[in-house]
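A reminder from the course coordinator: this example appears on the midterm review sheet, so study it carefully.

Given structure:
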């Protein structure tokens, strides 16, 4: 099997990162270097799905997963008019559990995350490392400065169409409907992405994802798959509502001007203990499902909750647009026109289409995917 060629865009971006690094500190240069090397290795190690399937050395289990992914990818193009490019048409096998590890940090008594600004990606609320050891080393530096820090493993990330994102061993074994959801969602971001408007971007991609998964299950699914996917969505909703509840309580604690820092620390500790206790109750309601246990592997801190937000308020409006337009291509055209407006006008039009309703909160960085390019 031949490796993928590294295209001119990737070479240009890597050179830009290297040039920026020459103007930066030693630690920043090291960060750029590992990021460029990690991206380069990920793409250069990718092979076309068809090659993996044809290879007699490929296990039966992996071959079946890749055939399902190929089917999902074809459906995305033929039935949803999503981009027919090389994203998710290649596969990379990694010898690690996660593709990268994100470092998120906040002040001790604040939920506002620290930001870092980079070439191409712009300013983001996390730093991604392809080595867990490197991520933990940087996290220790931040902790020593007094910040709350979390290191979270990420099974997948999106370059928003900058490069041909591959399927990766870290998520290829997702259940069928969840794999379809992720692929549809990320390809939707390649259709439209309004810089600096996560509420717009995530509501749009979530609409495409949900409609796409329902149509895909109508074609290829069964009742057992539908039941499993419904349980997945219900548990995700319950868990994120729980986190949002405690995020709000912490925000209220930190905002009290007549409460001393020592009192705020005591309340903070109590709230995080209550969060852990309530999670155990939630697990009991789920019949012992432990899929979110990894969230609690590190001592809880503000950084764990820094990326929680309600970004799906406009899903009803986008659903109304899709019903009105009658097809995905016409819908995408309408959404592109909205994206060209300024943020205030976009939101005004969406609110007129369908009033925002409380929706499931979305955990932006600790969910399935991280973004490269401005999320």
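Designed residues:
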């Amino acid at each position: 099997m031949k490796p993928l060629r590294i295209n001119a865009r990737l070479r240009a971006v890597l050179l830009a990162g290297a040039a920026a690094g020459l103007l930066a500190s030693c630690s920043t240069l090291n960060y750029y270097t590992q990021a460029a090397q990690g991206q380069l290795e990920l793409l250069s190690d990718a092979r076309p799905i068809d090659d993996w399937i044809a290879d007699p050395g490929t296990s039966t289990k992996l071959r079946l997963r890749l055939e399902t992914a190929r089917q999902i990818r074809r459906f995305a193009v033929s039935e949803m008019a999503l981009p027919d490019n090389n994203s998710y048409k290649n596969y990379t096998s990694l010898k690690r559990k996660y593709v990268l590890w994100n470092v998120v940090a906040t002040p001790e008594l604040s939920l506002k995350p620290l930001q870092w600004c980079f070439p191409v990606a712009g300013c983001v609320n996390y730093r991604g490392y392809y080595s867990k050891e490197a991520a933990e080393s940087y996290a220790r530096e931040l902790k020593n400065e007094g910040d709350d820090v979390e290191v979270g493993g990420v099974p997948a990330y999106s370059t928003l169409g900058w490069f041909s994102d591959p399927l990766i061993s870290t998520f290829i074994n997702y259940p069928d409907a969840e794999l379809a959801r992720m692929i549809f969602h990320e390809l939707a971001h390649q259709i439209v992405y309004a810089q600096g408007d996560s509420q717009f971007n995530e509501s749009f991609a979530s609409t495409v994802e949900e409609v796409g998964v329902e149509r895909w299950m109508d074609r290829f699914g069964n009742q057992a798959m539908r039941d499993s996917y419904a349980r997945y969505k219900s548990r995700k909703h319950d868990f994120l509502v729980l986190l949002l509840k405690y995020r709000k309580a912490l925000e209220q604690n930190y905002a009290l001007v007549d409460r001393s820092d020592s009192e705020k620390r005591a309340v903070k500790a109590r709230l995080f203990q209550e969060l852990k206790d309530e999670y155990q109750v939630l697990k009991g309601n789920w019949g012992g499902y432990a899929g979110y246990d990894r969230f609690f592997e590190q001592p809880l801190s503000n950084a764990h909750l820094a990326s929680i937000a309600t970004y799906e308020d406009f899903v009803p409006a986008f659903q109304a647009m899709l019903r009105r337009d009658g097809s995905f291509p016409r819908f995408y055209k309408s959404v592109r026109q909205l994206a060209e407006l300024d943020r205030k006008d976009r939101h005004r039009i969406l609110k007129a289409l369908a009033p925002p309703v409380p929706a499931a909160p979305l955990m932006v960085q600790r969910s399935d995917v991280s973004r490269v390019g401005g999320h």
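The chain has two domains: 1-313+358-375, 315-357. The first strand starts at residue 47 and ends at 48.
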